[in-house]
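Dear colleague,

Thank you for sharing your sequence with our group. We've completed the structure prediction you requested, and as agreed, I am returning the results in plain text so they can be pasted directly into your records. Please verify that the sequence below matches your submission; if there's any discrepancy, let me know and we will rerun it promptly.
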Amino acid sequence: MTGVILFRAQPFHNGHLSMVKKGFEDSRKHDGDLYIFVGSADKSGTVRNPIPIEFRLMLIEGALHEHFSSDELKHIHIYPLDDLSDETNNTYDWGRYLYMKMLGKTYDPDMTIYYSDDPQIMLSWFDAEDRWCLRFKFLDRYQNISATMVRRIFIEENDDLLKILVPNFVYMHKKEILKYLKEAREVIK
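Please find the predicted structure tokens below.
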């Protein structure tokens, strides 16, 4: 079974890590691989998407190296994913675009998508034609962590909370992350 996760990782936090662990565990039970798509790859420098894709990918890969063996990492694939239009595009066009991008990397039309936001958002992306081969696993949001919350705590420079909310590898890059967050805030002033 092929597992798929989509998130923006602005920045990568322990909620994302929890999803990856669950998706990996389920996929490997059925000899499948896990595919992570990092959305809004074409966006950076804004309050909602402050961190460029190259840095986000590096943070994800570094954090996964802390939590998975090299043999396990052979079954986890990470790809950037540009937005189709804007990131509020919850339409069947977006779902078709996403499905085709996933299919182009997994080569498996039969996928399980793991998601931790409102299920109605994910379901609104796929019409009946696309849903027939997709399974959805809606996970509870791990400790109610959101990237918006994590960005705020980075700005506040609350190290005690950051150490709880983000993997150690991400925490080690807090100065660079804070720089991106502050630069994005300066743009809107």
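Summary note from our side: The chain has a mean pLDDT of 92.

Kind regards,
the structure core
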